[in-house]
Amino acid sequence: MNYEGIEITKIAHDCFKVKKGIVIYIDPFQLSDNEEKADIILITHEHFDHCSIADIKKIIKDSTKLVAINECLSKLNQFENNNLKIVKPGSKLAINDIGIEAVPAYNIDKFRSPNITFHPKEDGHVGYILTINGKRIYHTGDSDVIPEMKEIKNIGIMLVPVSGTYVMTWKEAANAVRIIKPKIAIPMHYSTVVGSEKDAEKFKQEASEITKVEIL
After folding, report:
1. Is the pLDDT confidence value at 147 over 80?
2. Contact, 144 vs 106, CB < 8 A?
3. Does the pLDDT of residue 107 top 90, yes or no?
4. Does residue 167 carry a pLDDT above 90?
5. Bridge-partner residues for 22, per DSSP?
């Protein structure tokens, strides 16, 4: 889809390509071998379906900037360190005139074992807010509806998980949209590892009462 001159392509799972002169990938996963090379790659956390070295290798070039959290270092240290930026929730930086803000992403009630969530807050996983020509795109990362979302304002595009199990359910995702109030919401995190098209459709039915929803 085209959002005010910014091309946004959903590839698989949580992977999106955002293009406006430069090419940005978020959580590259299940890429084809002929994808265009990246200027910036953003990684939300270290899990295999978000920090995939095989997919990064398909799109990285000598000048590509990698942005990731510290827990990804063991996977990413094979790449040029000068091109690697380590962030944590609250970090802000600019690359090629693109504003990048790392925001918290974690679970509240999705547990792998008693009292241990799939994405604990203390692990420092992130979502990202991109600012491109004044337009703000929010990729929530793998998250539930969290209190920090109340502080996020002026979002044009919100990329939000809908599958449940490891992330918010479609109904919880609609609640996140009520909080953020983006101009457009795009569901993600379904039909690959967990969840289905039905989750995206249910989300659209619920969230369309709040904002415009696009299923890509």
Report:
1. yes
2. yes
3. yes
4. yes
5. 20
Q: What angle do CA 64, 12, 27 make, to 5 degrees?
A: 35
| CATH number where 104 lies | 3.60.15.10
DSSP character at residue 35: P
- In the three-class reduction of DSSP (H, G, I as helix; E, B as strand; rest coil), residue 99 is classed as strand
Place 45 in a pLDDT band, splitting at 50, 70 and 90: very high
DSSP for 145-201, written as a single string: --GGGGG----SEEEEE-B-TTS-BHHHHHHHHHHH--SEEEEES-SSSS--HHHHH
Domain count, the chain: 1
Give residue 114's domain range.
2-213
Structure tokens at 181: 């109030």
In this prediction, residue 80 carries a pLDDT of 74
